[in-house]
Amino acid sequence: MTTGNVLLFAAAFLACAVEMVEALTIVLAVGVTRDWRSTLVGVGVAALALAVIVALLGPALTLIPIQTLRLIVGALLLVFGLQWLRKAILRSGGYKAMHDETAIFERESADALGAPAESRAGLDWYAFTVAFKGVLLEGLEVAFIVVTFGSSQGNVPLAAGAALAAFVIVATVGVLVRAPLSRVPENTIKFVVGVLLTSFGIFWAGEGIGVDWPGDDLALLGVLAFVSLSSFALVRILRHERGTLRAVGIDS
Amino acid sequence: MRRLKAFGLFWYDFVVGDDWRIAVGLVAALGLTAVLVSLSISAWWLLPLAVIALLAESVLRAARSS
């Protein structure tokens, strides 16, 4: 397995796992407080919609010339990756609240309990729509990552396999635990995924434009190291600034 | 019309996210890299530096405004 394929598997697996944990919290909250049958139908329909998106987009992307594809995919991964990384750095620096699955579960449960009962097509419509939207929206980003990563690296099955492995693990643990997976280090995983997406984005967008990377494919590791170190440095700067502000606040 | 607007907002949020300046800066950096490459000037260094500069500007601005 090449370095690119290892990183591809890691990025798809981690991105899918962290989004699955978030979707699981929503599904558990509506399932426990409303109706499991309607919730699971919502999950199934959303999973089907995601499978259709991957099945349509995957082959369509392979028709685009590899140079153009890498530019498009690189640019998309850069905007996604920087969104993830920006939030992760602000969280690690103490400027944004950490993602808390237990708090989200409690809020979703309270909303579900307070929502009026409405039956459509024999389903609890609230449970169905919340589960459907939750899984579809959390899964959409993963579907894009799987399709774009897979097609650029020429290995959609590997990316899909990584996503499937994450799905099986999170779903199995979710069924066994029957509680939000608040122990999963989501913020750390998001940081890692942000670094990976941004690094791949820089490398592929550069390739798409026609940049000559020193060391060819090995340059990806250099980009990865540069993005990682820069991100850690930004976290340190933010923590230092926050510490200084606190000290000034205390002293004044 | 409302649904169309919601659809547009969803895609804007999905692709652009919290800081539109990053998206605009990325387009500019990609464009500048393409210009340098077309002039046969070595440009591999530009994209990594531009991306980190955009990220740093965005997080520091967000931190200072909070």
What would the keywords be for this entry?
heterodimer, A: 252 residues, mainly alpha, 8 helices, 2% strand, B: 66 residues, 3 helices, 80% helix
Can you summarize this structure?
The complex is a heterodimer of chains A (252) and B (66). Chain A is built from eight helices and two strands; from the N terminus they run H-H-H-H-E-E-H-H-H-H.
Descriptive notes:
The complex is a heterodimer of chains A (252) and B (66). Chain A is mainly alpha-helical. Chain A is 82% helix and 2% strand. Chain A has a two-stranded antiparallel ribbon. In chain A, a hairpin with a 2-residue loop joins β1 and β2. Chain A is flat and about 60 Å long. Chain B is mainly alpha-helical. Chain B has one domain.
Distance between the termini of chain B: 35 Å
Described by the principal axes of the CA atoms, the overall outline of chain A is flat
Number of helices of chain A: 8
Unreliable stretches of chain B, pLDDT < 50, 5 or more residues? none
CA radius of gyration of chain B is 16 Å
Major sheet attributes of chain A? 2 strands, antiparallel
Largest sheet of chain B: none
Helix-strand string of chain B? HHH
Number of helices of chain B: 3
The count of DSSP E runs of length 2 or more, i.e. the number of strands of chain A, is 2
Instruction: Assess the beta-strand content of chain B as a share of residues.
Output: under 5%
